Amino acid sequence: MDKKTILGAACALALSAGAACGSNTEPNDTASATGGTKSGTSAGGAGNAPGAGSPGTGGTVPNGTGGTGTGGTATGGTATGGTATGGGTGGTATGGTATAGTGTGAGPAMSGGTNGSSGRSGMAGAPNGFGGRGSGGAPSMSAGGASASGAGGGAGTGQMGTSMFTIKVQLASEVKASAPTTVGIVTWSVAATGITSAKIDFGLDTTYGLTAPVDLKQTDYRTLLLGMKPAKTYHFRISASDASKTYTSDDQTVTTGAKPSASPLTSFSVKDASSLPKGYFITSFWQGTNSKMPFIFDTDGDLVWWYTANSGESTDGISRARLSADSQSIWLVNEALTGNPLRRVSIDGTTTQTYMSTKASHDIAAVSADTMAYLDYSESDCNSIFEINNAGTTKEVFESTGVTGTAGSLTSCHGNAVRYSQKEDYYTFSDWQKDVAVVKRDGTLVWKLSQKVSGGNTAWGGAQHGHQLLDDSILIYANNGGGTNKSAAIEYDLNGMLLKKFTSNGNATNFGDVQRLSNGNTIITYSTSQLMQEVDKNDAVVLEVKGSGSFGYVEFRESLYGPALDIAQ
């Protein structure tokens, strides 16, 4: 007598004694496994799971509960619930686990019990290779006693696990010691083709909160994590999509390094957190302590980026640190009236470039991609606006001689600020004790502020630095606009009518800046007072920052990725 016959006889004896009986098949048999039978109310025995994905079948139990069948673990085998007679309950069924390979694992079909309950649809299984599991539905009650079959689970659409990603992360300071310890460099690949978009979500916990866009043209999808605080552990997760699916890695971590020993900020005071938009301030000091170090701090007052000058680089104070429109570089300008070569630092701090053929001073503006506009001090006449790109190609776009000043002395012409407005494709140019001019990209004059405001530049005190052209108005930082030893931010409409003079809280004999934010707040930088304030629409101070030196120009950004706010306004 073979083993199957012996087991079958033993099962019959067990049933006659009122005991539950197990499967009539061997565990490794590739055929279906069948549970035993049992009269009364006891449950039938569980069917053994076959080794290669064939179905297991629950036992038949008169007036009782059907047995449980379990699918195989290779290709998502199906399982059939047991049959219950006399109003009993149908057995449950569990689908097999889909494993790596080809094909699709699907959830099992489910049969309801005879004269019992109806089966429900099986849950969707996961595609092979993604580690998903498909499960058949448990029976649901129905009013009638007729048997019904639940539908099989469909193919799964689950996400690809980390095992399909190859991920490497390091700090920029591990590549170059002088680079910031707060910049993460992530390189990665994924075992999928046709990727059309990707991003990295990151933050201090697994809710993330920050997003770094991935440039698919970069080698190894190299992506920078920007805006991280010093000495913190950050979590990050990669998402990559093709035409039909999104693949997401498991959570990864990176721990940032220490902040610089010398902090450029001496005081950071939030007056109204509810009115303070989250973001980053990019700035520098043109004189005083830390004047060689451009830096970025966030709206928590934490330093998130800085640059340490290499040996031999200019020691003059940095009047402007400006992020390029493509967010790949920080450009640095000195304040020297004789002009100094422009410098460019990659945002990860690992590479630098000095443009020895340039003589720039005071200011530089982001235009588009890697194109910047700076104030050229190399010519014998008045200062001009020049454009430059990463390759060092330069082009003069506006000559101020005869427009805002006349050559001859510092007070005759002294360009000190330049901005770019993308909507109008206009430049705005400040000549210190003369005027603010609005010019087209080709250098054609559009209008001058002194021609619109009654009384000319004496109306705002006769001197200005930072400014911003808005859709319906223009903001200027008037160095003498607040009265004796006081500066003020002043806003005019485009017809020259005074809209607002902000309450004066400081002074700047040199420099000074203004910027309107998207929520209506205004940042006012009182340079030589070493003070920066953000005020709301009602002129109430919501943030006050004090520095260890005289602030140069300030750029606020809600994100360190993408174009600057003031370009789009």
Question: How is this structure best summarized?
Answer:
The protein is mainly beta. Residues 1-161 have low confidence and may be disordered.
Features:
569 residues; mainly beta; 7-stranded antiparallel sheet; 36% strand; globular; disordered N terminus
Annotate the secondary structure layout.
Blueprint: H1 3-16, E1 33-34, E2 56-57, E3 61-62, E4 69-70, E5 84-85, E6 93-94, E7 110-111, E8 149-150, E9 165-171, H2 172-175, E10 184-190, E11 197-203, E12 210-213, E13 223-225, E14 233-241, E15 246-248, E16 252-255, E17 265-270, E18 280-283, E19 285-288, E20 295-298, E21 303-306, E22 318-323, E23 329-334, E24 340-346, E25 352-368, E26 371-376, E27 384-388, E28 394-399, E29 415-421, E30 426-431, E31 435-440, E32 445-448, H3 449-452, E33 464-469, E34 473-478, E35 488-493, E36 498-501, E37 513-516, E38 522-526, E39 531-535, E40 541-547, E41 549-551, E42 555-557, H4 565-568
Parallel strand pairs: 1-2, 3-5, 4-6
Antiparallel strand pairs: 7-8, 9-10, 10-13, 11-12, 11-14, 14-15, 14-16, 17-40, 18-20, 18-42, 19-41, 20-21, 22-23, 23-24, 24-25, 25-26, 26-27, 27-28, 29-30, 30-31, 31-32, 33-34, 34-35, 35-36, 37-38, 38-39, 39-40
Structure, described:
It is built from 4 helices and 42 strands. With 569 residues, the protein is mostly beta strands. A 7-stranded antiparallel β-sheet has the order 22-23-24-25-26-27-28, with no helix packed on it. Strands 11, 12, 14, 15 and 16 form a 5-stranded antiparallel β-sheet that branches. Helix content is 5%, strand content 36%.
- Please tell me the overall pLDDT: 79
| Helical content class | under 10%
Shape: globular
Give the strand order, joined by hyphens, for the main sheet: 22-23-24-25-26-27-28
Judged by helices, strands and strand pairing, the structural class is: mainly beta
Number of helices: 4
Q: Kindly state the number of beta strands.
A: 42
Beta content comes to 35-45%
Low-confidence stretches: 1-161
The major β-sheet equals:
7 strands, antiparallel
Query: How far is the N terminus from the C terminus?
Result: 90 Å
Determine Rg (CA atoms, Å).
36 Å
